[in-house]
Structure prediction request, 342 residues.
Amino acid sequence: MAIEIIATGKAVPPKRVSNKDLAATIDTSDEWIRSHTGIGARHIAHEDTACSDLALEAARQALEMLAGPRREETLEEIALTLDMIIVGTATPDYYACPSTACIIQDKLGAKNAAAMDLAAGCSGFIYGIETAAGILETRKSRKRALVIGAEILSRITDWTDRGTCVLFGDGAGAVILEKTGAPREGPEKRGLLRTVLGADGSGWEHLIMPRGGSRNPLKPGEGLKTPLHLEMNGRAVYNFAVKAMTETIEKLLAEEGITIGQVERIIPHQANARIVQAAAKRLGIAEEKFFLNIEEYANTSAASIPIALDEMNRGGILRKGDLIMTIGFGGGLTYGGNLIVW
Ligand code: UT7
Prediction:
């Protein structure tokens, strides 16, 4: 039995904001942003668009991939085969209740699926894959899960803070996991081989939305100078990210008993190209092994890895049988990685 990714999808808002566009409103420059992060642009959702809108579009694309070019099955029929929907997000449609996953379940008509959101910051997709795989494994009758990473970070960004606002973008990516009869070991092995998950809660203050939760709620009549927004200790998160990436790659390789040469591509969370370069240098891995699309989308948190997977899948970069690694890190502080035979 294997847990395989059988379809992918993505959604990115059409509005593209370049570094030069940002430099027209705050004290920054294309040169600074590119040289410090590798970011060239970000896509920003229309004010009427919420997290579930992007998540739904990505999910539909994945379902369409399964329906096939001749539409042997309708999307509604395929949606009924889903047993679980997980949405990794820090920007749900509604805080606390309902989950964004329940909205997706309703809009897809996936009546047989359980649904929940997962809060693990930028590692949400990695955590979501392992959670969904575990849920599929614990019952014979469960076969398929939809795992989405979706964010509208532009809505919790302080657009006057140049230290954070240049970093983030909006988007969603989705995959469908299926429990198949393929082997999990041996030369024909397929699907999710192993996952590393971890957290360093001692860094919880380094990436935080300080207002709006039960610790520090908004009070009636309170006038806000800025919308609720994320605050970040960039240097602390950077140091954590390089260490987390390096150690997670090493751990996945050691536990699986393989060398980096056997891994076709690494798909890192797209937070900062310099984080990837630093980890690559520490481990002596060629930078070309890492897939990067941060230049176009910036940091879309839990969405960045499934967006990359969809681009690689549709772009013919991933071939059946390729061994790939996903690596995530972010708010919490959390980290993790999946080792997958495509
Ligand atoms: O998704 C996971 C969460 N996030 C991350 O992984 C991000 C992790 N952190 C980082 O990627 C980096 O720390 C940043 C890109 C956020 C910042 O890069 P840095 O090299 O650590 O810059 P810095 O914060 O040390 O700032 C250096 C200088 C400062 O000026 P002074 O004090 O040296 O005169 C900043 O004020 O750069 C200035 N600066 C900017 N200048 C132009 C900071 N932001 C900007 C900006 N444009 N946007």
